[in-house]
Design goal:
By secondary structure, the chain is an alpha/beta fold. A six-stranded mixed β-sheet has the order 1-2-3-4-6-9, sandwiched between helices. A three-stranded mixed β-sheet has the order 5-7-8. α1 links the parallel β2 and β3. α6 crosses α7 and α10 packs antiparallel against α11. The longest helix has 16 residues. The relative contact order is 0.11.
């Protein structure tokens, strides 16, 4: 791994910390390469991921020094978008624990998570049009899926930065916490996830991520596989035995 992404590997989860605090964790090419390496690891050995940032920031955006020098061929390569999309479809859930700013590409990285928790000082925004570009790493469709099309249009077209309270009110994040309690809250979410059957969790994520046109066929297909699993039988038997006591 690179110093841009600090990894803590636990038996049932991984914590990845964006670690360029001097640049407020701006996402450079080294960060993207590290995200791809982490995704490869979690594709091979699926575990929930908690993604956060060091130094009181989540990520202040893409590295503008790098971005200024990119040309059409770099846009066509989808440098950031491919890494964020790969993370979003990891087999197990991704939880973003967001303290401080999540702007531009940093906000788009947060949008790619399954669940977002924030500190009370968090701020979100996509100011890309003010820099002469679009929010081109997923915000154009993910933000609308999260907060609704009209709200997403207003935020993306104005570049307005919103605070933590507004982010909670519009459903961009699921809960707010004091900064010193944010990681404990993220771990509590993962605690609840890992108590469930890992195969059922992965299937639930696939169903949630599927396009509307894939339903109900995908629901039926995933449920059929789970109905044949030994773990489903074991867990339901245990439930019935507890209820009969």
């Amino acid at each position: 791994m690179t110093d841009a992404l600090r990894i803590e590997r636990l038996p049932d989860r991984v914590v990845a910390t964006l670690d360029r605090p001097a640049a407020r964790n701006a996402i450079d090419r080294a960060t993207i390469d590290a995200l791809h390496a982490l995704c490869a690891e979690l594709e091979a050995e699926p575990r929930p991921l908690i993604l956060t940032g060091a130094g009181g920031s989540f990520a202040a955006g893409a590295d503008i020094g790098e971005l200024r020098d990119r040309r059409a061929a770099d846009a066509e390569a989808g440098i950031n978008i491919h890494a964020f999309e790969r993370m979003s479809v990891l087999p197990q859930p991704v939880i973003a624990a967001i303290d401080g700013v999540a702007l531009g590409g940093g906000a788009e990285l947060a949008y790619a998570a399954d669940i977002r928790l924030a500190s009370t000082s968090a701020r979100f925004g996509n100011p890309e049009p003010a820099l002469g570009i679009i929010a081109g790493a997923g915000a154009s469709w993910r933000l609308g899926e999260i907060v609704g099309g009209g709200r997403a249009a207003e935020l993306l077209l104005t570049g307005r930065v919103i605070d933590a309270d507004e982010a909670l009110a519009i459903g961009l994040v699921t809960s707010l916490h004091p900064a010193d309690e944010l990681m404990a809250a993220a771990h509590a979410v993962v605690d609840a996830i890992v108590r469930n059957d890992a195969d059922a969790t992965a299937a639930t994520k696939r169903v949630l991520r599927a396009a509307r046109s894939e339903h109900p066929a995908i629901d039926i297909r995933e449920q059929a596989v789970l109905f044949e699993s030994a773990e489903k039988h074991r867990r339901m038997t245990a439930f019935l035995e507890r209820r009969s006591r």
